[in-house]
Write a sequence for this structure.
């Protein structure tokens, strides 16, 4: 076998060594997943702060920050899952959105199947 074939077999599809687990994402999809999770957490924090403000009248405005927060975190989980499976992403920051996305999907499915 040629040397280039062996290197390609030892490494992932994108040429980096597989099996390494680092902290920072190494792929574009991994970075996007982390950014979307950060945006979702920031919007969730804004929702919490706005819910505690007196005199805003009604709770319909909570959907302005809560729904985008949910969509951002779910999107980060989906993109993070694609980064792990297709790109071979092995970083802690890219795996957190996957775990959060799975937890949110589990809660949404539970809410649809067995509502309060």
């Amino acid at each position: 076998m040629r040397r280039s074939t062996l290197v390609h077999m030892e490494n992932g599809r994108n040429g980096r060594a597989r099996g390494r687990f680092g902290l920072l994402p190494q792929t574009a999809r991994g970075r996007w997943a982390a950014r979307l999770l950060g945006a979702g957490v920031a919007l969730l924090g804004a929702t919490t702060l706005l819910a505690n403000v007196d005199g805003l009248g009604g709770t319909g405005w909570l959907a302005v920050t809560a729904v985008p927060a949910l969509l951002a975190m779910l999107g980060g989980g989906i993109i993070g899952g694609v980064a792990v499976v297709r790109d071979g992403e092995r970083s802690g920051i890219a795996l957190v959105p996957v775990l959060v996305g799975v937890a949110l999907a589990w809660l949404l499915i539970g809410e649809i199947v067995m509502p309060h």
About this structure: The chain is about 65% helix and 0% strand. Helices lie at 3-10, 28-51, 63-86, 92-113. The chain has a mean pLDDT of 81.
